[in-house]
Fold this protein.
Amino acid sequence: ESNSDDAIAYIDGSYSNVAKRFSYAVILFIDGEKITYSGSENTSELAEMRNVAGELKAAMCAIQLANKNGVKNLKIYYDYAGIEMWATGKWKAKMFYTQEYANYVKKMKEKINITFVKVVAHSGDLYNDEADHLAKIALLGEGDASAKNENGFAPDSNVFPVLSGKKSSINLNIMSKQGTIISPEKLYKWAKSNWLREKMKVADILEIKAYYDINSDLFYINVLGKQNERIYTLRSDEWNGKE
């Protein structure tokens, strides 16, 4: 229920302890249009804040996107309490980046009326779950904060200072919470089988990446093709029998 003056945003952040990267995702509804934006960074000072850095960056990106589109009223749905508490002063911002976030929101409130709505994480809220999903997928990529999304919008990369970092990948056999050992080869094979099931050609696959979230025991498999992209979700307890 959005229009040109009133926008709705769902935000989330994530963190990879292996890659030492944080990520952020925004789902923004303006005038009935759905806009998504996500990315990841490895700024060492911010990475120390783990997923909180991504949560704050997501909120700031949502505000920027809304402002660039002339929105007057923005409602932000979030699941991390600090998003609202630091912005409203209910929590005292002690760290440099929480202070920077609080000051940014205060400044932008002169241009946009911003309200916050708390959502319980992993409670089945459709767009909160999607934002969480997009943030996790962003950890798989380069996370270039200056890159435009499919709708042509690009939040300013200097919301937080961004330092470039080298991308690395590690192949591991993963033992899930269920005790199932899953190899990269099996994940690759499973992703291809799903791609084929959707009547796609294996020859069109450019890249397959997988991310394992140890907290939810979920695998996120991203298949990038020449003309299409698909993201599959697999629970490790569903793995038995899959080849």
